[in-house]
Specification:
This protein has about 130 residues and is α+β, with helices and mostly antiparallel strands. It has one domain: Nucleotidyltransferase, domain 5, CATH 3.30.420. About 35% of the residues lie in helices and about 20% in strands. It has three helices and four strands, in the order ββαβαβα. It is globular.
């Protein structure tokens, strides 16, 4: 998983298969016309910063909450959960779900991985659960 999408992969004891892919509602920080790469509008001078920077941040945070809530809802059906992926989304999501009561009795593991193709993700899940 990452901030753009998450895959749900089921393992039946023999094979793993992707059963769902969820795209995040956010496309990241959208740049307004005239904005520079450091997210300020028209100039790198701090006095000319975008007046809606706070609003953009709030929108991004709300979209991330919606994305994580969708993932949480889908996790309810699973007993063994393996979270993996590049970046910090995996750890941020794990911290969020660790505080939830619906996960009591479920086994959750977190594993760092590079960005993987779908076939590599399926192989990683198979390897992980075969060795358990």
């Amino acid at each position: 998983m990452d901030y753009a999408h998450a895959y749900f992969i089921e393992y039946d004891g023999i094979n793993a298969v992707i059963v769902d892919a969820i795209e995040a509602p956010s496309v990241g920080h959208l740049r307004e016309k005239g904005e520079t790469d450091n997210k300020t509008r028209f100039s790198e001078n701090p006095q000319h910063s975008s007046p809606n920077e706070y609003s953009k941040q709030n929108i991004e945070e709300e979209e991330l909450k919606k994305y994580f809530k969708t993932l949480e809802k889908n996790l309810e059906a699973y007993r063994d959960i393996l979270l993996f992926g590049p970046g910090t989304a995996r750890d941020q999501f794990f911290k969020r779900i660790s505080e939830k009561h619906f996960l009591e009795g479920k086994r959750i593991s977190v594993q760092i991985s590079d960005k993987l193709t779908e076939n590599q993700m399926v192989a990683l899940v198979e390897d992980y659960f075969e060795t358990k």
